[in-house]
């Protein structure tokens, strides 16, 4: 079964074809994928401009679809079903992918299904030959979400805890901006942190001893104050290069420490021994390595997708669509997108 996946919830136009006959291949079941990032378009404005995002998705969707078919060496009639991101996200941007996907499916006479963006992230580490088995705890860490979820099967999710303010990725992005680094901040902080001392500054780990919820706004304020006190803003780059690297490393360390401790607590609370991390921040190497070490101590394992499948992409939507269709689900002809949607 070949499922076309479409992701247009924010500033990436992602298309991919998941082919269930390729599950055992070393390509995560993917026949092909294309990804176009609007980062440069929005960089001028210091953040994603919703109207421009929608216009750019519309401009790129059909040419990218054509490119994907060529890459896969197939005809559009070879596609068996279409999955598109239905929410959460920017409403205009969501509607471009949803309408394209629903209309194409109607024209081809095949089923279409709307997917929750975070379910796409959650299931992405399960693509491929040796997926971690259910049940597991999922740590979803993206630019818009930070959640701990007990996943008992496809569609069986219980939220154990979540951020009461900023998301982890958002905090990476804001700390990066304060340090004079470009968007997206996560990978740039990680790079700068390589030459810094993670123990140079003791940043707060908020709500560590209170349940499984997170709070990151205090950490953001602490970084702001630290930059002011040490003049690490990036304006006098040469003289304070080491200070900036130390701030980046200390921030990343505090963030990772918080995520790891809460994840460990969640595993113990629900009596599970598998943690699956997903979303853009799960690409972070320091997070992965610390989880590998810390979870080994409690006989638990950590699982994640290759870095390219951690950030937004069409492949995760195609795969989530495949799983939902296998369970007998599909959507009717009416297109409805949900900009704010709890999983
Ligand atoms: O999942 P994603 O691509 O988009 C959303 O659904 O939000 O996540 C994007 C977030 C951004 O905040 C970005 O800075 C962060 O993921 N990110 C990282 C890394 N790569 C991406 N954060 C830390 N370390 C990374 N290597
Ligand atoms: Zn995402």
Automatic annotation (TrEMBL):
Coiled coil: none
Cross-referenced Gene3D superfamilies: 3.30.420.40
Cofactor needs: Fe(2+)
Compartments in which it is found: Cytoplasm
Pfam families in alphabetical order: TsaD
Phosphoprotein recorded as keyword: no
EC number: 2.3.1.234
The Gcp-like domain, residue ranges: 30-319
Cofactor binding summary note: Binds 1 Fe(2+) ion per subunit.
Database matches in InterPro entries: ATPase_NBD (IPR043129), Gcp-like_dom (IPR000905), KAE1/TsaD (IPR017861), Peptidase_M22_CS (IPR017860), TsaD (IPR022450)
Single GO MF annotation: iron ion binding
HAMAP family, A to Z: TsaD
NCBIfam families: gcp_kae1, T6A_TsaD_YgjD
Function summary: Required for the formation of a threonylcarbamoyl group on adenosine at position 37 (t(6)A37) in tRNAs that read codons beginning with adenine. Is involved in the transfer of the threonylcarbamoyl moiety of threonylcarbamoyl-AMP (TC-AMP) to the N6 group of A37, together with TsaE and TsaB. TsaD likely plays a direct catalytic role in this reaction.
Family according to the record: Belongs to the KAE1 / TsaD family.
Name of the featured protein: tRNA N6-adenosine threonylcarbamoyltransferase
Natural source organism: Psychrobacter urativorans
Lineage: Bacteria, Pseudomonadati, Pseudomonadota, Gammaproteobacteria, Moraxellales
